[in-house]
Every structure is written in C-alpha cells, then in structure tokens.
Recover the amino acids of this structure.
C-alpha cells in the first residue's frame, strides 16, 4: 500500500491539531531507569497531528511517510505486525483503561519531520502527541503526568522497549531555551537555561539503526537491576543504582560479573556528570561542559557498551577542533545521532568536512540537523 499524499493532510479539516516534538539529551544517558538525573529538552523537529471525531466507532489513523493506515476499533486493540501501529494501539489501550467507555471513533492523520531510529525519540513524540490529541478531542481530562506514564507503558508493553521516563517527560515538558534537569526518582524537574554562548547543538545522524537497539537496551536494564540486587544484599538502603557511591560499587568489583560492574560504574559516573554539567551551564563554561560530553561518550563506549563504530568515528573526528567543545552519542545507542556543541561560525565548515569523511569511511551519507530547543507537546 502507498503512503498517503501531502494534499490529503492539507485538506483534512481537523477539530484538534497537535504538534509533538522530538527530544535531545545533553547528558545523563541510560540514567533514567537507574533513578538518576538527566538533562533533556524538546527540539524543533516535530510530528504534526490532525484529528476529528467520526460518527461510528472506527479509529482510523493515516500517516504521510508510513505505509498501511491503522484501522481499528476500541474493542479490537490487538498488537499489529506493522510496528508504528503498536505505539498508537498501546496508547489507546492504556487510555481506555484510565477512561473506560469514553473512546469513540475518530480519524487522525499525521506527518513527521522526525527521523525514525535516530535517537531523537520519534516514538515518544508519536505516543505523546497522539495521546494528547485523543485527550483533547474526546475531552478526557487526562493530566500530563497521566499521559507521560501511559505512553511509557505503551512503549514497554506494545513496542517492547523497557524504556525509562526521560523521553516521554521531555516531549511533554520541554521548554524553549531550557534544558530540564529531570530527577528520575521523583519525576520532577528544574529548569536550566540553555546558554551555550555562540555555540549551537548539531546532531549528526549516522543513518545506522542496528537492530540490536531494543534487545540490548532491555539487557542493559536487567544488568543494572542485577548489579543493584547484588549490592542491596549488603546495602539494602540503596533503592536505585544511581544512588550507590563509586566506593561502594568498587567493593563489589570481584563479586559482580565484570559487565555488571562496568554498567554500575558508568551509571554512577554519568549521574555525577549530569550534575556537573548543570553547574558548567550555569557558569557559562562551555569548554568544561564539552569535556563532560567526551567523558560520557567514553563511558557509553567502554563501560556501558552501547556505541558502535560509526558513532565512535564521528566523535573522534571532532577531537582537537577548538570550535567543537564536545561530542557524544545520544539516546539508546547502536546507531542514531551524535550530539555536538559547535561554535556557530564553524557549523558549515564542520558539516562539510565530517560528511565527506564519513562518506569516505563508511559509504553512508550523514544527515546533519542543527537543532533548537522547543516547547513540549502543544495543542495548536
Ligand atoms: C531511550 C529510552 C530512554 C533512555 C535513553 C537512554 O531513549 O527511551 O528512556 O533510557 O534511551 O538514555
């Protein structure tokens, strides 16, 4: 089946329109499900949804860019063989549990400029934007907190990634010109101004999406849990891996399987890096901030083992270029984007050089995105 044409989107007369952004994470990777601090925000790449009620009970969702419309009913929410359907089916399933007998038929159409599988959370944007649209259209009175957690559950149970809370939280709560210092235990945030002093954030999409990403992601969450369980036998006071100080993790160096030990060390160090990054941002110290990004990448590569050769190449390329303050892989790993802090007047030069080198090395075209911070999901 063909993907639908733009004209159909433009001619759709909507009752509700929603814009749902992707997210970046400045630092604090693989920390959310370990109960630490992360530093994400929403970006100016979005999915645009249009919705209107129907007179019958059908739920019909079409997309520009994805083939095979979703046609279902609320009493028939089974998992689909088409992967993008499952995010929406999962959202409907959990909305229906929270608001029984309230979901009536509707049409929805969406178009996206968020690249899929690139680590900028097109999935959370899809879930949260759709949930917000259905909530507004059918006047369900779900809170943002309800939406964040039902979308996370949809991702766990229908898409199969046992993700943390960061993506859904940032997609809903992002704020222009700010990062969110998100406390993943309390699920609250403080705003941190995104002052990068004549630097911009450039994402470089490797255009690689290794199919390891979901399976390895879920393995990492289990490894961290096992490490914590082992530490808790002696130190039951620690409820999250991020709370365990490095000295205590080191006590378990020989007790823990070596990969579990490495995961725990990374988690503790990365959590500290996030807190340091906030101070450097507040002080306007972009150089020190950038150094933290390099340390984060090293940890993700060597201790957490979620990088890949394409990401490593892109990060290494930026070393020793004074106009680039820092670079690291972003998101779950095994492909997707690197995040780079680049001096404004060097961006064009940088993109040209690195694209050429990447093409030469891997015979793959790099896709650069100069991103701006943005507000979270908005009803237009
Ligand atoms: C994915 C998950 C998030 C988070 C990141 C890694 O984006 O959805 O919850 O764990 O990976 O930081």
């Amino acid at each position: 089946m063909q993907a639908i044409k733009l004209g159909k989107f433009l001619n759709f007369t909507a009752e509700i329109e929603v814009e749902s952004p992707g997210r970046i994470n400045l630092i604090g990777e693989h920390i959310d499900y370990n109960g630490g601090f992360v530093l994400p925000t929403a970006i100016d790449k979005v999915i645009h949804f249009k919705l209107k009620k129907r007179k019958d009970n059908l739920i019909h969702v079409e997309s520009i860019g994805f083939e095979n419309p979703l046609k279902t009913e609320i009493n028939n929410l089974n998992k689909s063989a088409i992967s993008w359907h499952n995010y929406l089916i999962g959202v409907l399933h959990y909305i229906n549990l929270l608001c029984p007998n309230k979901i009536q038929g509707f049409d929805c159409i969406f178009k996206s400029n968020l690249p899929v599988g690139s680590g900028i959370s097109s999935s959370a944007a899809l879930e949260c934007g759709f949930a917000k649209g259905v909530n507004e259209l059918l006047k369900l009175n779900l809170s943002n907190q309800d939406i964040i957690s039902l979308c996370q559950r949809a991702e766990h149970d229908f898409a199969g990634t046992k993700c943390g809370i960061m993506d859904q939280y940032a997609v809903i709560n992002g704020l222009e010109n700010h990062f969110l210092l998100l406390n993943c235990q309390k699920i609250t945030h403080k705003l941190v101004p995104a002052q990068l002093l004549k630097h911009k954030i450039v994402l470089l999409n490797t255009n690689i999406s290794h199919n390891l990403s979901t399976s390895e992601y879920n393995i990492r969450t289990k490894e961290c849990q096992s490490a914590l369980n082992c530490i808790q036998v002696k130190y039951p006071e620690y409820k999250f891996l991020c709370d365990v100080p490095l000295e205590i993790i080191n006590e378990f160096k020989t007790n823990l399987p070596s990969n579990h030990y490495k995961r725990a060390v990374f988690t503790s160090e990365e959590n500290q890096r996030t807190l340091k990054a906030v101070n450097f941002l507040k002080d306007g110290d972009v150089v020190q901030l950038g150094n933290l990004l390099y340390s984060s990448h090293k940890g993700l590569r060597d201790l957490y083992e979620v990088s890949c050769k394409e990401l490593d190449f892109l990060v290494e390329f930026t070393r020793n270029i004074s106009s680039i303050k820092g670079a690291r892989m972003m998101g779950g790993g095994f492909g997707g984007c690197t995040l780079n802090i680049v001096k404004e007047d060097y961006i064009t030069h940088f993109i040209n050089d690195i694209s050429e080198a990447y093409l030469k090395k891997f015979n793959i075209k790099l896709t650069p995105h100069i991103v701006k911070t943005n507000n979270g999901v908005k009803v237009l």
About this structure: Residues 294 and 378 are 34 Å apart (CA to CA). The mean pLDDT is 95. The first strand starts at residue 16 and ends at 25. Residues 29-30, 32-33, 121, 163-164, 166-167, 331-332 surround alpha-D-galactopyranose (CB under 6 Å).
